[in-house]
Amino acid sequence: MRKYPLDYVIYKGPTYIVEWYYMQDGKMPAYEYFQDMEEKDQDRFLYMVKYFADSSKGTKLPATMYRIEDSTEKIYAFKPRTERLFNFMYKGGKVIITNAYRKHSQKMDKQDREKLKVAIKYKKDYLKRVKEGIYYE
């Protein structure tokens, strides 16, 4: 029996495959957030994902679109406008979108840092489940 959602892949480019992270119960927190975003922000995010996945390795997106949020844990964020969609990279050119939030101020406040902690937790869960062979079955 399939435990993962069929539609977790957002886009497959020649360089990267961008996916929604899914929890053991099949929920996809970032996708659920994405569904509630304004259509213009959804379109901008999808454009950024396609541009990123189609770019050659080493190509840097402008910091206004994509930047590292935690250099220790290597958590990045796509930045369509005021939304931040956290993600990390994995072997084989995978980019996993974990969760998202709406930015509250110029700098990360306490509420925003909590969302970053959730992204780190999801990354650890992903790595553990991949290592155990139960994430992709």
Structural features, described:
Helix content is 34%, strand content 25%. It is an alpha+beta fold. The chain has a single domain, classed as RelE-like (YaeB-like fold), CATH 3.30.2310. The longest helix is centred in the last third of the chain and has 22 residues, at 110-131. It starts with 8 loop residues before the first strand and ends in a 6-residue tail after the last helix.
Secondary-structure blueprint of this entry?
Elements: E1 9-12, E2 17-20, H1 29-36, H2 39-54, E3 66-70, E4 75-78, E5 83-90, E6 94-102, H3 110-131
Parallel strand pairs: 2-6
Antiparallel strand pairs: 1-2, 3-4, 4-5, 5-6
Helix content: 25-40%
Task: Please name the CATH architecture.
Answer: 2-Layer Sandwich
Tell me the CATH topology.
Answer: YaeB-like fold
Q: Which runs of at least 5 residues are low in confidence (pLDDT < 50)?
A: none
Task: Report how far the terminal alpha carbons are from each other.
Answer: 9 Å
- CATH homologous superfamily label: RelE-like
Extended strand count: 6
> Which strand order spans the largest sheet, edge to edge or round the barrel?
1-2-6-5-4-3
**Total helix count?**
3
**CA-based gyration radius:** 14 Å
CATH class: Alpha Beta
Largest sheet composition: 6 strands, mixed
Oligomer: single chain
The chain-level mean pLDDT equals 90
Q: What would you call the shape?
A: globular
Order of helices and strands: EEHHEEEEH
> How much of the residues is beta strand, in percent?
15-25%
Q: Give the class from helix and strand content and strand pairing.
A: alpha+beta
